Amino acid sequence: MSIEISALSFAYGETPVLRGIDFTVPDGESAAVLGPNGVGKSTLFRCLLGFLDPSEGSVRVNGKDMRSLDRRAAAREIAYIPQSCVPSFNYTLLEVVLMGLNNRMGLLESPKAEHKKAALEALDSLGIAHLAYRGSGKVSGGERQLALLARAMVQNARVLVMDEPTANLDCGNSARVMERVMNLTREGYTVIFSTHDPNQAFRYAHRVLAMQGGKVLSAGPPETALTARTLTQLYGVPMAVCPVTVEGRTFPVSVTLGGE
Which of 208, 245, 246, 250 shows the shortest CA–CA distance to 227? Predict the structure, then answer.
C-alpha cells in the first residue's frame, strides 16, 4: 500500500479533530476525501504529510512511518499540490517547477542542466511545455495547477496529496487537470485529493473516504461508499444518485434535491 492510515486520532489541545481514522490507498490508485467544511480534511492531510504528529495511530507512506522522516526524506516519498491561485510573484512556469527540486539540491546550489531538462520533461508530459517561459500570472488557473503538478513530479515522490485541486477552476480546466491526474495514476503514481464535489469523486477516484465529525462515515469504492443516504447525511440536504449512460458507459451522478 502507498498510503496506510491506521487508527489515526488528532486533537488541538483538548479539542479532538480526527477520531480513529482507518484508510488505505494502494499503489497507482486515486482516492477522494469528502466532507463538509471543518470536518478535519486539512488536518488529515497535515498528518499525512508529516506536518502534524497524531495523538494516536499512525500514517505510513510507502511503508515508512511519517513521524520517523525528516523534511527531505518525507519529500522523497510524498508531494503536496495546493489549490491554484494567482501568485504574488510572476515566476515563469519553469521556475515554479524547479522549486520542486529543493529536496535534491544543496542550500545554495543552483539548478543544473539536468534539473532544467527534468522540469521541461515534466511540463511536456502535462502538455504545457510551450508555456515554460511564460509568467505564472499570465496563464490560466488550470495551467498554473498543471505547473504545480509538474513541480510535484520532479520531486520524484510517487505519492501526491492534492488539496481541492480544482476549487478555483472552471469546468473545462477542472476536467483537464483531473484527466492529467488520472494519467499519472496509470503511470504508477498514487493520488489522494480532497473535494466538495461528489461527482468528481465518482469520476476520478478509485476509492473514497467520506468524513463526518472527524470520523469515517463511509469508505470504499465510490459506487458503494457514496450512496444517496450517505451523501444526504454528509451534506444535510436530500440527495439522489442516478446512473447516466454516455457512449455505452454508465456513470453514477449525484443530484441535490433541495433543502427542507
Answer: 208
Kindly give the pairing relationship between strand 159-162 and strand 190-194.
parallel
Per DSSP, 189 falls in state: -
User: What does each of the 260 residues of the chain score in pLDDT, given as a tens digit?
Assistant: 699 999 999 999 889 999 999 999 999 999 999 999 889 999 999 999 999 999 999 999 999 999 999 888 898 899 999 876 667 788 899 999 998 887 666 655 677 888 899 999 999 988 899 999 999 889 988 899 899 999 998 988 899 999 998 888 888 888 888 999 999 999 999 999 999 999 999 999 999 999 999 999 999 999 999 999 999 999 999 999 999 998 888 889 999 986 55
Q: Could you give the residue ranges of the DSSP H alpha helices within 99-170?
A: 113-125, 141-154
Q: Which three cell numbers stand for residue 112?
A: 543544473
For domain 1-77+157-224, give the CATH superfamily.
P-loop containing nucleotide triphosphate hydrolases (3.40.50.300)
Element (H, E) at 9: strand 3-12
| Rounded Cα gap, residues 259 and 175, in angstroms | 28
From-to residues of CATH 3.40.50.300 in the chain? 1-77+157-224
Q: Letter for the amino acid at 13?
A: G
User: 3-class SS at 220?
Assistant: strand
Global pTM reads 0.90
For residue 173, give the H/E element and its range.
Answer: helix 171-186
